[in-house]
Amino acid sequence: MRILAFIVVCLTGAFLLYGTSEFPDWGDPNSPASLHVAAYYIEKTYEETHAPNFVTAVVTDYRGFDTMFETAVIFTAGIGCFLLLRDFRGKKEHYYHHIPTGVILHIKDEKKSLTIGKEFGYMDKEWVPPDLINKTVCRILIPFIQIYALYVVAHGDYSPGGGFQGGVIFGSSLILLAISYDLKTLVKRVSERLLGIFAALGVLIYAGTGVLCLVMGGNFLDYGVLAPLFPGMADHIRALGMLVVEIGVGIAVMAVMTIIYINIVSEGRHDEGL
Amino acid sequence: MHWPIDIIVLTFVIFCAIAALSVKDLLGTAILFGAYSFLMCLLWTIMGAVDVAFTEASVGAGVSTVFFVAAIFRTSRRTKD
């Protein structure tokens, strides 16, 4: 069976390689991809939208409809992960440590629980003592990562990057918090409800911008008609519309990445993890 | 031209792909996938697609490696075959 699979894989690979010989050369100006609309985008994008990075202009303005549904796909991924993995039953066993003495308590009765405060602290089953160096380095690093993420989102139309990348970077800063401290620290600061609201809010901002354009009398996601709402910025209005949409994508992606991580690492119980 | 860099990076990409398939330790596979994504990111940069490279670096090499590690943490570390 393995040999058969190997032969099939080799044959498919050979066919694919044979197919690539028909491809146009790299950067060929006469290739089908550069003949139709590419020239228009390269020549007219800056005139029309005032966005220096025309990859972003194509993605969020000329093809804004595509990107809206990509954001919806991300949102659906988060919802799917939540519905598949979330487990509301709670743990059967609880571990606590007595803070003054360091004694570890293991309670097997699921109905009994201790109040967490100055005397008793919560503990994970697979408990590793928090490492001072890891904690300190991550605590210093996380704000800079978040500032960088905001920079990437805000400069989406000027430099490489945009809502998607910025959102992923922001989400990974939250994941870093969960890894360096523990999952409870993250869940306490960023609640599940807030993450769910953010994930939906991001898609709402994107679709809402489109609907706002409809209300103002233009086409869906035609940012040009929003000019009366932002007086004095008429020539930059399309770049501004892109920025709003990018912020929506960033919020949605940030929330969904965190939801997926929390649900995978704690088997949906949101109590202990990596 | 930069074709020597191209060939070196492509060799590493293929090496990473084969290693990720043949390694028995799944944690090692996750790390190899991270390395693979990072090398792909280099390739995109060489070809001038900086936006794609940025996405590959943040999603492929960054967050998906963490997801793999989280999934391995909750399942088993060794493959059956």
Q: pLDDT under 50 segments of chain B (min length 5)?
A: none
The proportion of strand residues of chain B reads under 5%
Order of strands across the widest beta sheet of chain A?
2-1-3
Low-confidence segments of chain A: none
Provide structural commentary.
The complex is a heterodimer of chains A (274) and B (81). The radius of gyration of chain A is 25 Å and the shape is globular. Chain A starts with a helix and ends in a 9-residue tail after the last helix. Chain A has a domain of 188 residues. The model of chain A has no long low-confidence stretch (mean pLDDT 87). The longest helix of chain A is centred in the last third of the chain and has 29 residues. Chain A has a 3-stranded antiparallel β-sheet with strand order 2-1-3, with no helix packed on it. Helices cover 61% and strands 5% of the residues of chain A. Chain B has 81 residues and is mainly alpha-helical. Chain B has one domain. In chain B, 81% of the residues lie in helices and 0% in strands. In chain B, helix 1 packs antiparallel against helix 2. The radius of gyration of chain B is 14 Å and the shape is flat. Chain B starts with a helix and ends in a 7-residue tail after the last helix.
What would you say about this model in short?
Chain A has about 270 residues and is mostly helical.
Topology:
The complex is a heterodimer of chains A (274) and B (81).
Chain A: H1 2-20, H2 32-35, H3 38-49, H4 54-62, H5 64-85, E1 94-98, E2 104-107, E3 120-123, H6 132-154, H7 163-180, H8 183-189, H9 192-215, H10 237-265
Antiparallel strand pairs in A: 1-2, 1-3
Helix pairs in contact in A: 4-5, 4-10, 5-9, 5-10, 6-7, 7-8, 7-10, 9-10
Chain B: H1 3-22, H2 26-46, H3 50-74
List keywords for this structure.
heterodimer, A: 274 residues, B: 81 residues, mainly alpha
